[in-house]
Structure formats: C-alpha cells, structure tokens
Write a structure and sequence with these properties.
By secondary structure, the protein is mainly β. It has 8 helices and 31 strands. It has helices at 8-11, 14-22, 26-33, 37-46, 48-52, 93-107, 321-327, 396-400, and strands spanning 114-116, 126-132, 137-142, 147-151, 157-161, 179-182, 185-190, 194-200, 210-216, 222-228, 231-236, 240-245, 252-258, 267-269, 273-277, 283-287, 293-297, 305-308, 347-349, 351-353, 369-374, 381-385, 389-393, 411-415, 429-432, 435-440, 443-448, 467-471, 485-487, 491-496, 499-505. The strands form 7 sheets. Strands 20-18-24-23-22-21 form a 6-stranded mixed β-sheet, with no helix packed on it. Strands 19-28-27-26-25 form a 5-stranded antiparallel β-sheet, with no helix packed on it. A 4-stranded antiparallel β-sheet has the order 1-31-30-29. The longest helix has 15 residues, at 93-107. The two termini are 48 Å apart.
Length: 507
C-alpha cells in the first residue's frame, strides 16, 4: 500500500519548520531548495535572513547591532583576519554562510587547497612580523635591524626605520628586535632594556607611517614582552614583571610583579592573567591586576601522552625563483601575487596514543619549556619544549584550582622526534579555532583539536578536523628555525628563510 507523506510545509507551522532547519546542515539546505518552488521560496525567499543568520549556520559575534529599517550591519566581518579579502562585499547572511562554509570545508580537507606567497622585505631575513588586516599592512623587524611596514596586497615597502648597524640615530632599530603589535600600536625593544612604543594614523602621517609616542625604560635586564588587550606585559630575568595600561597616554605602569628569577623570556596574557615561561620549572601564572601568583603549570606532571606518527623522508619542494636567486648570490625578486592553487603543499599527519616509539632521547631526561601561548577565545594554553613536546592544557583555570591536582585531567602531551637543534629561539606557537601550530626540525605542524580543545585519536578523531604539516623552507641550505608564525581565518603565516610565507586557504 502506498503511503503519501505530507509535505512538512503544508502541515507544520513555519516556526516549527524553522526550528528543524536550525539543525539542518548547510549542504542539506541547498538540496531542500531544489525539492519544490515552495521550499525554494521558504528558504531562499521568505525566511532567508532568519535561517542563514542562525548561529548554527554562520559564525558571528554574540551581539550584533540592528540598525533602523531592519537591515543587518555586517561591519563585524571587518574583524575577520582574512589575507584574501574573503569577507569583503558581504551582502546577505546567505552570502556570509556560503563563504564561511567553503572556507571551513577547505580547512577540514586532509590536503587543503592553498595558494602561496613569499614576501621578501628588503635584503635581509625577517625576524618578527605582524599582520594588520584592517589597514592591510605587515610590520616586520629584521635579523640585520630596522623596522619595515609593507603593503599586504603588493608587498611594497610603505615606510621604514633604519638599522642600528647603519646609523647611530635615536630612532634606529637594533638587529633581532622583538616586535609586538595591536591595532595601530607597535612595540619593539632597543639596547638598554627599554621598549619603544610607536603609533600609526597620527595627524599628518602617511599610510603605514608610525611616530614614537613613548619609551618605557627599565632598571633591570628585560627578556621579553607581549602586547594585547591594550596591555603590555614585560618580563625580566631578575625576578620582575611589569604590566602597562596602553590606553593611557603616556602608557601607565599598573602592576610591578615579583616573580621567580631567570625567566626565559617567553610570556603571554589574556584578559586577567599573564603566564611566564620558566624553562625546566614550567609555566608560572600571575594575575595581572594584583600581581598575585595563581599557580604553576608543570608539564612533567602530565601523564596522558600522544605522538605524531613519523613521516617518511621526503625531498623538499623545488625552490622558487626568489630563494634560488638568493642561494646563488643574485638579487631576488618579490613573489606576488600568490602562486597557483595546489593541494600538495600540506602533508597529512596522523596522531597516535602513547609516547613516541623508538625515540632517540632518554624519556626521563629533564625537559626545558619555552614558548607558551593562551588562546584568545577559550581557556586553552599550549607550551613547547626543547625535546619536541607540546603541552596542551584545555582549561587553564581548572588546572590552577587546588594546586596541581586538576592538571592531569585537563592536559595532554604531544611528542614529536626532535634533537633540540631548532629550540635556540625557544620555539614558536600559534593557537586559533581549535587548531595549534608549532615547528619542530624544519617542519611546521598544524594539529586539530576537539571542540573541547583536546587531542583526539581513533574513533574520537573522526569528528575532529585533519592535521597536516609542511617544510619550513623549499631549500635545505636555507632552512632556519621559524622566528614567528600565526594562524588566521584563511591563512597560515610563518617566517620562511629570507622572508615570510602567507599560505592562503583557497575557497
């Protein structure tokens, strides 16, 4: 007996259908619009805004203003970190949903399609760089000194400060200057344990031009500093930490912390805490406002271990024209715009439970912990060690409760084969959108975490995005440790021999 199933549109109230569509994947919405003219009109006509503006369909801030007249304000997409201008010209929620869906689908491919750019800034290797997507500029320092501001879309140098090797002028920038940046404010160190503060968009300045607004002097040896949340945190090897309010003019020292001696220089912060790396003593956490010590994260107490399955030896990709020219002593050319799309730039990797098998090092050897990073949108903390270990703490705040009792329940260790030769810089990290990125032995790893920011393998890993890796240089002779890396909405960026590499995820 044939049974006719009624069309839900004819028997259910629109509110119920909309609630059902809230749980319907975006791919299924496209199929439903082809079922009948009525479904097409319901989804892409009458209720398009309600359907595609749902948080289950688009990623958006928690609160979005509703201008008069009912038109949505899409200005929040300006906060996206898109190298490819992916979110420019958004006209509807459906348009935003489509772009976000295609981008995430590429990220979740075992071998994402990417386009590659190599930007050489001047004639010397890049040391640190920062990307400003609102102003479409890169700010960078160099192995040989100087500070450069480059156009993000052309690579052209817009403005620069000279190297301290070339001039004794007061505004010259020392070699290997560390650089921090937030929304038009740059901070870099100079000889004498001082940090200079410069700002762009000042009256009478050209695009990309900065002016010095402050010099923060310290009477102790400083090792590192970090700028975010409009707060500059500075660390000294002499048992001192400094917290500055950068919204004051001039910046105001709000907290002077007493910490343990011999901090290694790596530090990071979130809204209310600062985390200092202490080498073999792990990571020490303090409250920024009061200076109170909140606890210690000691990765050696973590018992849950995983490892990256070793990759077979592979020849590096053929070197591009710029790097080949540099190798033979000829002037190199700027590589812009990006190269052709390819799927072969990122190699899939696999994670396994348990310690790294057949490791060449002593498993009981004391480890030294370097760079540490706090995720900007969760309680995730990640640390990196000389022995190629990555410490993943999914909930920093819970780990600090009751001393170290909770640490094992919210932390994991990921091991990779390493001889420690690339750790002299203390390693570098990035964390964003449930992914972490780090470099070990001339290879960068991008590892996907679960929604709870945990490493997953086996059946659990099926719901987690893929992980992959790529070489840090296209020519072994030019391979140098990565001195900065970052994950963005549609790009992976790292220093890359002579310049830095923005690898764009294609949509």
């Amino acid at each position: 007996m044939n049974v006719t199933i009624p069309d839900p549109l004819t028997v259910l109230p629109p509110e119920i259908v909309l609630r059902i569509l809230d749980f319907t994947p975006v791919s299924a919405l496209g199929s439903l619009t082809a079922v009948s003219p009525a479904w097409h009109q319901f989804i892409d006509g009458t209720h398009q805004e309600a359907i595609y503006s749902s948080p289950t369909k688009t990623s958006q801030p928690h609160k979005i203003s509703q201008p008069a007249g009912g038109a949505r304000d899409f200005s929040f997409v300006n906060d996206h970190t898109s190298f490819s201008k992916l979110f420019d010209g958004i006209t509807s929620w459906k348009d935003l949903c489509k772009r976000q869906t295609l981008l995430e689908r590429n990220w979740n491919s075992p071998q994402p399609t990417t386009r590659e750019s190599i930007l050489q800034v001047g004639n010397h290797a890049v040391w640190r760089f920062k990307a400003d997507f609102k102003r479409r500029i890169f700010i960078s320092t160099s192995h040989a000194g100087g500070l450069y501001v480059s156009d993000m879309d052309t690579g052209r140098i817009l403005w620069q400060l000279p190297s301290a090797l070339d001039t004794t002028e007061d505004h010259a920038v020392r070699p290997y200057a560390h650089l921090e940046y937030q929304d038009g404010m740059a901070a870099f160190d100079r000889e004498g344990d001082a940090v200079e503060i410069w700002r762009t968009d000042q009256d009478g300045t050209a695009r990309g031009e900065f002016q010095r607004v402050a010099v923060l002097d310290h009477d102790c040896q400083t090792r590192g500093f970090q700028l975010s949340y409009w707060t500059l945190v500075v660390v000294s090897v002499e048992g001192q930490g400094f917290v500055y309010d950068m919204q004051q003019n001039p910046p105001k020292l709000t907290t002077h912390l007493e910490i343990e001696q011999d901090a290694v220089g790596h530090l990071d912060q979130n809204e209310d805490v600062v985390v200092y790396s202490m080498g073999t003593r792990g990571y020490h956490v303090y409250e920024k406002k009061s200076g109170q010590a909140l606890g210690i994260l000691q990765p050696s107490q973590c018992t849950e271990k995983y490892h990256v399955e070793p990759l077979p030896p592979a020849d590096p990709p053929s070197s591009n024209a710029a790097l080949a020219a540099l190798r033979y002593g000829r002037p190199s050319r700027r590589i812009f715009p990006p190269s052709a799309p390819r799927k072969s730039r990122l190699t899939p990797i696999h994670l396994r439970k348990g310690p790294l098998p057949n490791a060449s090092r002593d498993p009981n050897e004391e480890d030294e912990w370097g760079a540490g990073m706090l995720d900007r949108s969760s309680n995730l903390f990640v640390g990196f060690s000389r022995l190629g270990r990555v410490f993943v703490c999914s909930d920093l705040r819970k780990a600090l409760e009751d001393g170290s009792k909770n640490l094992a329940s919210v932390s994991q260790i990921l091991e990779c084969e390493s001889d420690g030769s690339t750790f002299d810089l203390g390693g570098w990290l990035s964390a964003r959108n449930h992914r972490i990125m780090f470099e070990i032995q001339n290879r960068v790893y991008v590892v996907a975490l679960s929604k709870e920011n945990r490493i997953s393998v086996g059946d659990e890993a099926e719901e987690v995005g893929p992980s992959y890796s790529f070489l840090t240089s296209s020519a072994p002779q030019l391979a140098v440790p990565v001195s900065f890396m970052a994950l963005f909405d549609d790009a992976i960026m790292t220093t890359y021999a002579v310049g830095f590499l923005p690898m764009k995820m294609r949509v």
